[in-house]
Design a protein that fits this description.
Layout (H helix, E strand, L loop, with lengths): L9 E7 L2 E8 L2 E7 L14 H21 L16 H11 L7 E2 H7 L6 H9 L12 E2 L12 H10 L18
Parallel strand pairs: 4-5
Antiparallel strand pairs: 1-2, 2-3
């Protein structure tokens, strides 16, 4: 049996206006960013290695950009990502990155844009497995009737984020996106 070398990973938590975010990174980039919705055990800290220090650098950059986003100073993220998923998930996550700040798309529209017009549910599943909330903006995907559906951090957070970006009216109805090149 071969010894498998796993990349060094670092993680931390940061408080945001809508709860605690768990952020993890490898030396290649941010690999996880999700809202903490249950009490999670603390990871033991190992002695820092060069790879772990590099991963912590990605985390520090992510924290700075997240704070800028919530303060209204940032509309997109510029972070190296280290995402692992199926080819379909990767395709959907790339499609999510193309939804502009302040705009929304329906699951069906996103399915069409990624070349699978009949796969709105599969797109929803891929959105639900998105490991880096906010950075890969799955909160910008809405139901065909303009309503909010599925968000791992809770629909109230999805609503907050859409309002923060100006993509949702105070009445709660999501504003439909204008067409954009994708």
């Amino acid at each position: 049996m071969k010894n498998e070398v796993k990349p060094e990973k670092a993680s931390t938590r940061v408080q945001t206006p809508i709860g605690v975010l768990h952020i993890a990174a490898t030396p290649r980039g941010v690999s996880q960013l999700d809202f903490v919705t249950t009490r999670q055990a603390r990871a033991r800290r190992a002695a820092p290695t060069a790879a772990a220090r590099q991963a912590r650098g990605h985390i520090a950059r992510a924290i700075r950009q997240i704070r800028e986003y919530f303060s209204g100073k940032r509309t997109d993220f510029d972070l190296p990502l280290d995402l692992h998923g199926t080819p379909n998930q990767q395709l959907v996550w790339q499609g999510l990155l193309e939804i502009p700040f302040g705009k929304t798309l329906t699951y069906g529209e996103l399915a069409r844009r990624v070349g699978s017009p009949r796969a709105a549910r599969a797109v929803g599943t891929a959105c639900g497995s998105n490991p880096v909330a906010l950075v890969v903006p799955c909160h910008r995907v809405i139901g065909s009737d303009g309503s909010l559906h599925g968000y791992g951090g809770g629909l109230w957070r999805k609503e907050f984020l859409l309002k923060l970006e100006g993509a949702m009216r105070e009445s709660g109805a999501a504003q439909r996106a204008l067409p954009f090149a994708g």
